[in-house]
């Protein structure tokens, strides 16, 4: 089953936060925060503008993005948790 986002939506697979600190301390499950970065899995065609053309998307498949802690809608695809977000909910693009 493949999911193709519509309009200006982006399908993102969250990247889980580390369970161990830099000093080697393992964090308990209760202290884990919700992920705020993820890998773009699929991108919609772009928002339809008033002149009938589509706005180009600023992210592409494979990009690593940062988003708000409670942004998007959670969906489960093939047993994996994903998020569907609008392009405007993305806060940044991680490079390097």
Describe this structure in words.
By secondary structure, this protein is mainly beta. It is 0% helix and 35% strand. The protein contains no helices and six strands. A six-stranded antiparallel sheet has the order 4-5-1-2-3-6, with no helix packed on it. The protein starts with 8 loop residues before the first strand and ends with a strand.
Task: Tell me the distance between the termini.
Answer: 31 Å
**Poorly predicted runs:** none
Helix content: under 10%
| CATH fold label | 10 Kd Chaperonin, Protein Cpn10, Chain O
| Alpha-carbon Rg, integer | 15 Å
Within CATH, the superfamily carries the name GroES chaperonin
The name of the CATH architecture is: Roll
- Count of structural domains: 1
């Amino acid at each position: 089953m493949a999911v193709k986002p519509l309009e200006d939506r982006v399908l993102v697979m969250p990247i889980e936060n580390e369970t161990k600190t830099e000093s080697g301390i393992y964090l308990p499950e209760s202290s884990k925060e919700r992920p705020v970065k993820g890998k773009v899995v699929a991108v919609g065609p772009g928002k339809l503008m008033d002149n009938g053309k589509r706005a180009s998307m600023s992210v592409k498949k494979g990009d690593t993005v940062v988003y708000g802690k409670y942004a998007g809608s959670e969906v489960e695809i093939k047993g994996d948790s994903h998020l569907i977000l609008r392009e405007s909910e993305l806060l940044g693009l991680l490079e390097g």
